[in-house]
User: What shape does this take?
Amino acid sequence: MIRVLTMVALVLPLTITTSKLTAADDVVRVFIFAGQSNMVGSDSKIKDIDNFPPFRGLGTPQNNVLFTYILGREDKTTSGGWVSLQPVNNGFGPELSFARKVTAEIDAPIAIIKCAAGGTHLGGDWNPDEPSGFKMYPLTLNLIRDSLAQLDEMNIRYRIEGFMWHQGENDMFNEDYMPNYGKNLKNLLACWRRDLRSPDLKFYIGELCCKTIWGMDLRPRMYAISKGQRAVTTSDPLAEYIPNNHIGVEIGGGVGLHYHYGTLGQLQHGENYADAYLSSIGIKRPEQENLKRWPYKKKSTINLFVLAGHRNMEGERAFTADIETSDKHNHLLQNQPQIAFKYSLGGGVSKSSQWKPLGVTGFYDTFGPELSFGKTLAAASKENIAIAKFTHSGSQIIDWTPEGSEAKSRHIYSKFIQFIRDSIAELETKGHLVRLAGVFYHVGENDMSFGPYRSNAAARIDSIIKQSREDLELADLHWFVCQQPPTDDERVNKIDVTSMIADTLAKDDDATHVRAFQLPPQAKKLVIDSEGIIQLGNILAEAYLKNRK
Assistant: This one.
């Protein structure tokens, strides 16, 4: 490792300009990363990074970025001073992808100070006033002060640019800490600003991941922490809430559910912080190109297809790079300008501002079944086709129901219905008669791995369908409910969810049960890769063509 004594050699590459930010200078932007296990990077693996094309190469050191850290509880791992940014102990947190994205966009050097330990509390370990346990607050404060002093000694100019915080899961297990999380977080931010003498320090508060098992079996407790976080970020103009529910999580053994982001999630976690920071300095994420020419004749009828669902409808592990070199599938990456397309992904994290040509969205460089779905429909029909896609890969079926759950901030039914209404209205405003050809809903994958949710899946789907018809005033709205093979594990196999869904839909003349049970073998439970997502789109299109009226 490069130590402090050799830092001059390390700093030199930081002065190389990239002409990305007009107000370029050589002041080092210092970012602080702190929290518990999902900030440490638990269950991330260097060897798996290259399995995810958008992030290939991030396992190697980034010699243009300064890095210093203390990680862990009893047995701490420390950098012993400034080093090049790199994985630690064969793992990593959000810092790797954050740094790559930020340095690609700004013409200024950056440095990262990281202090994190799994299983630590804001109410205790991170308490600025009375730190207990592993005393993370004074530990981190000393690390920051010492690290900045080293920069001072070498006459390196710097400023503290932002503080990334991801913590809260452990506070939900303490009956005193849980209801006071918001108050404690507010105090934490105030103490950091005071002790670092940075009254305008910007904080980025990472949302706890409810895509894990805790998002289901501990839903009320996770919600309590999120309410505290949102209270602070709503009232503090220098604190921003960073959505993370939609990013990838580690796929565990057995039923597949896990507690940590793991490799893919950490890589996307870092990009979320980077996007938020870059947006704060005026650099926005590019959006897909708008339609150059409206593809439909005036006053013509448009068949609107609504695609909806969770992680596989979103395309969590279907990467555009997987099919770029495929003679069989690379044509799907070309825009289909004859099909107007709009989307809301990740629960609204990425939304189109206008109708686009059907194509890739740029959302973590992934794609969903809409590409092959649209291609198959267009080849089989001369009708006008438009596609509106609404997904949230971090949701469960209960979040889509009209009644929702006690976690009110996760409730998306009303947003989904409004999305459909808006899509219809926008097309009608252009002078078209709109026919809602169907809603194509891919069943929640996580629900299949948790007994109580698996047991209620059919009833919840039925309630969504019935209420949507009433709210949209379309009594015969056709629903195509698509199901991949449910989780195969002895802990949930006694619940025959396939039969339950089939029996429920069989009673509905305007519902079709689409069994996508012949997909290619997948490397991981729950998630479908690129080849499978393409086939899923074809299956959905064929189901419509077979059952259209």
Remarks:
- Residues 451-472 form the longest helix (22 residues).
- The mean pLDDT is 94.
